[in-house]
Amino acid sequence: AIQWAPVNIMFCGMLFTGMAALQHNSVPMVTVFKNITNIIVAVGDYYFFGNNVEILVMMAFGTMLGGAVFAARNDAAITGIGLFWMVGNACTTAGYILYMKFATKNVKLSKFGMV
Question: Pick from 36, 26, 37: which is nearest to 97 by CA?
Fold first, then answer.
């Protein structure tokens, strides 16, 4: 059960930093950073698990990020503290997703025990 604790801690950190980031940044800027987080997860998936990213997935990432940046062009409000919280959110979200993938394969808990 102690091996499952980082999942819960990172999930709580993800929620907290996301709400804190929304207090200091505009919603379009948060969307841009959340799309960057998807790219970070793909890079981490390649680095830690050896999963290659297909060209169509890279094109989808580019389209999502480009669309988010285009949508945020007139409402790009971000502060220093907001940037801090967004970087924290990107790290905790990516860590949560990547550790969850590791834990579901390697931690010996039943599906009920994971809840």
Answer: 37
Helix (H) or strand (E) holding 108: none
Q: How many residues does the chain have?
A: 115
CA–CA gap between residue 4 and residue 36 (Å, rounded):
26
Q: Is the pTM of this model over 0.70?
A: yes
> Sorting pLDDT into bands at 50, 70 and 90, what band is 69?
confident
CA distance 45 to 61: 15
**pLDDT tens-place string over residues 18-65:** 999 999 998 888 988 899 999 999 999 999 998 998 999 999 999 998
Say how far apart CA 58 and CA 16 lie, in whole Å. 29
What is the SS3 string spanning 39-65? Answer: HHHHHHHHHHHCCCCCHHHHHHHHHHH
d(CA 12, CA 114): 15
